[in-house]
Amino acid sequence: MTMLSRTKVTYRLIHRLSNLTQSIQDHKRRTFSKSKLSNASIACIDLLLTNGPKSSGAIAKHIGLTTGATTLLIAKLEEEGFLRRKIDTDDRRKVIVHPVLKKLKQQSADIDTLKQQLISTLDSYSLEEIAIISDFLQKTEALYNGESIGG
Predict the structure, then answer these.
(1) In Å, what is the CA distance from 24 to each residue of 29, 71, 124?
(2) Which of 18, 41, 76, 80 has the fewest CB neighbours in a 10 Å radius?
């Protein structure tokens, strides 16, 4: 591959990443459109539906709020029935936040459907290719989070 074509392909990939980011945001808005939730609320619920229960500190770090603001957000979402807090069985000082799946039934189903579609798409790649894609996405995420990725 010549340098010119590599540059062209690289910039095309960067453009596709930008489009993907927008598509992800659009999907989240569509998934939660009927609930009239704030972007921070959507990010919190989406994190829990996608990755499972988390501590409030992990939620704060993921959505970029202070721990105090996150505590207020969680309390509001708990009051509205979207989340529930449980004491961590391993460390009783810690609280773990869980999504209330009954309240989020449609959103959870939409996310599960998308996960299955992504898995089907990944089935067309070899394990080695998936590892390369995963590595690239992990490094890209680190860059967007202001982290150093090394060589």
Answers:
(1) 9, 26, 21
(2) 18
Is pTM, for the whole model, over 0.90?
no
Whether 67 and 60 have beta carbons less than 8 Å apart is answered as yes
Rounded CA-CA distance 5/58 in Å is 41
**Main-chain dihedrals φ then ψ at residue 49, nearest 5 degrees:** -70, -35
The answer to whether 123 and 131 are in contact (CB under 8 A) is: no
User: Which uninterrupted H or E stretch holds 55?
Assistant: strand 54-55
Find out whether 40 and 73 touch, Cβ atoms under 8 Å. Answer: yes
The CA distances from residue 136 to 17, 80, 139, 143, 149, in Å, are: 11, 38, 5, 11, 11
User: What is the number of H-type helices and E-type strands within the chain?
Assistant: 6, 3
- Say if residue 27 is exposed, middle or buried (CB neighbours under 10 Å; 0-12, 13-18, 19+): middle
pLDDT (tens digit per residue) in 52-89: 999 999 999 999 999 999 999 999 999 989 999 999 88
> What is the Cα–Cα distance from 140 to 16, expressed in whole angstroms?
13
Write down the residue that tokens 């959507």 correspond to: 42
